[in-house]
Design brief:
Length: 394
């Protein structure tokens, strides 16, 4: 506080002594007012110091509560940020572009948009294969720490057509990454698919297609299509695994008569069907070996049809045994048979059979013929057909 000096020594010329004394008193009053004001300020500052000390004590208590995990607040106002302020795992901020809270995880280049997506930390167990960002994946195993092991999904086979999600990061061999089960995924090739158009799992490992294949697994929808030769499309992942499955079937026909040969008690495998008159949906088959392989466990219909001729069997009744056999890699198992009674003095016969049975994944099925009574001499298959069709498979 600066106080003004009081001059009463006569240094001011032209001013009477009384005036000087009055001026001095006035100056004293002014200085006294300043002293009183400063005293009030000191009192106020002392009060503020006390309040601040209380606030510091309260703040220390709040910090202790935060560290102990017991802090309670009415609200938290985050700054609006367009990008992550830190790449440190555990960073929480409000993203003004996504309009949601975002938390940084341990995978470089990926975050979790809270309330906008479902993601999972996964592992690529392959020692050689890289799973790229945007690849569709399926689960193969679950580790003890609940991390899922994944491979590229494919609609070429039932076992790989059950979609888990879409890779949100690149998985080098034997590394961790993130997979989106539901939510937006960027940097995806969506050329040729219109906005809002459905996208499906392709028969090519990990790839997308706008045209549903035979095994139809929906991946999601296009938000933003790719420009030419650029993987800058955006999709919304909302998987529906195997939403449409046709009847799985394989059929083989042979209309060219076989060479005549004696047919006895030892079965004859029916082979060498006509490749141009055979086909399949999903199911594997071999016209050369006469085999059909079941793609999954389930219920199947098996149908056979045949026409034969042979040397007149004379005045006796014989039987033609038609069997459907299964090879499980260890044993041969009969799953169906048709014991056709052949009339006396006949030289030809025909027949057909349909049987519903429980099939097994990767078992190989084929047709065999034999004569349990004696022998058909010069036995010829004029025509034959063999088919397997799914009724209910899993």
């Amino acid at each position: 506080m600066a106080l003004e000096p009081i001059k009463i020594d006569g240094s001011e010329t032209g001013v009477s002594g009384a005036e000087k004394i009055n001026n001095g008193f006035t100056q004293c009053d002014s200085n006294l007012t300043k002293i009183n004001n400063n005293t009030a300020n000191i009192t106020t500052n002392t009060t503020n110091i006390g309040l601040n000390a209380t606030g510091i004590t309260t703040l220390d208590g709040r910090v202790d509560d935060i560290e102990a995990g017991t802090a309670e607040v009415d609200k938290v106002a985050f700054n609006l940020l367009a990008a992550s302020p830190s790449e440190v795992e555990g960073t929480l901020y409000y993203n003004s572009a996504a309009h949601t809270l975002v938390i940084k995880n341990d995978i470089a280049g990926t975050n979790l948009n809270l309330g906008h997506e479902i993601v999972s930390r996964c592992y690529n167990p392959s020692t050689t294969l890289t799973i790229n960002e945007g690849d569709v994946v399926a689960i193969t195993a679950i580790q003890a720490n609940d991390v899922l092991e994944i491979i590229p999904a494919s609609a070429a086979d039932l076992t790989t057509a059950v979609i888990f999600g879409v890779a949100t990061s690149t998985f080098l061999p034997e590394t961790l990454g993130m997979v989106t089960k539901m939510g937006a995924v960027h940097s995806v090739d969506t050329k040729g698919i219109v906005v809002n158009g459905a996208i499906y799992l392709s028969e090519t490992d990990g790839q997308l297609t706008g045209v549903s294949p035979a095994i139809s697994s929906l991946v999601g929808y296009v938000i933003q299509p790719s420009t030419i030769d650029t993987k800058d499309g955006v999709i919304y992942v909302d998987t529906r695994s195997i939403v449409s499955l046709p009847n799985v079937v394989a059929y083989m026909n042979q209309n060219v008569p076989t060479a005549a040969a004696d047919l006895g008690t030892i079965g004859m495998f029916v082979t060498h069907y006509d490749a141009d008159d055979s086909g399949a949906v999903i199911m594997e088959y071999s016209t050369t070996d006469g085999t059909i392989t079941a793609p999954a466990d389930g219920i199947y219909d098996m149908t056979i049809d045949f026409g034969t001729n042979y040397t007149d069997i004379g005045n006796t009744v014989q039987h033609l045994l038609v069997e459907i056999m299964a090879d499980n890699g260890v044993d041969l198992i009969q799953v169906g048979q048709y014991n056709k009674e052949v009339a006396k003095n006949s030289s030809s016969t025909n027949g057909s059979m349909t049987k519903t049975f429980k099939g097994n994944k990767d078992w190989i099925y084929y047709m065999a013929m034999s004569c349990p009574d004696d022998t058909f001499q010069d036995f010829v298959l004029e025509n034959v057909s063999f088919s397997l069709k799914s009724i209910d498979i899993r």
